[in-house]
Amino acid sequence: MNIKYQQGRKFEYRVRDYFIKSGYFVVRSAGSKGLADLIAIPQKNNHLLKPILVQCKSGDGRINAVELKALKALAYKYDIIPALARVVSGRHLYIENLILNEELKI
Predict the structure, then answer these.
(1) What are 5-39's pLDDT values in tens digits?
(2) CB-CB contact of 37 with 67 (8 Å)
């Protein structure tokens, strides 16, 4: 297993654990071959009431235009929230709603 894969997987677990601690049911896409690394499903009493499709970026935190367009299309088609999880200021986990272009408050 290469170092980049290990770092990415470790970051996905960190994001997964964050959602689980916030009351979500989370499914991880092993190998990250699809559009999303994680799917976070809220409980009925959650204020968002929509599943969240999460792309995790442990490196530079950027998502390319093709991925962004595909995530947004999926979001509109299935009424879900597309999100980008990345690290800012060294260690702070930041999850951005890719439709509203603002921090996702879960």
Answers:
(1) 888 889 999 999 999 999 999 999 876 577 899 99
(2) no
Helix (H) or strand (E) run with residue 33 in it: none
The predicted model scores a pTM of 0.88
Spatial contact of 99 and 73, defined as CB atoms under 8 Å apart: no
Q: Is residue 74 a contact partner of residue 83, using CB atoms and an 8 Å limit?
A: no
Q: Which of 93, 102, 90 is nearest to 38 (CA)?
A: 93
Domain CATH code at residue 9: 3.40.1350.10
Task: Give one word for 11, left, alpha or beta, with left for phi > 0 and alpha for psi -120 to 50.
Answer: alpha
What's the pLDDT tens digit per position in 37-55? 999 999 988 777 899 999 9
| Structural domains counted in the chain | 1
Strands 38-41 and 52-56, by their bridges, are antiparallel
- Which uninterrupted H or E stretch holds 81? strand 81-88
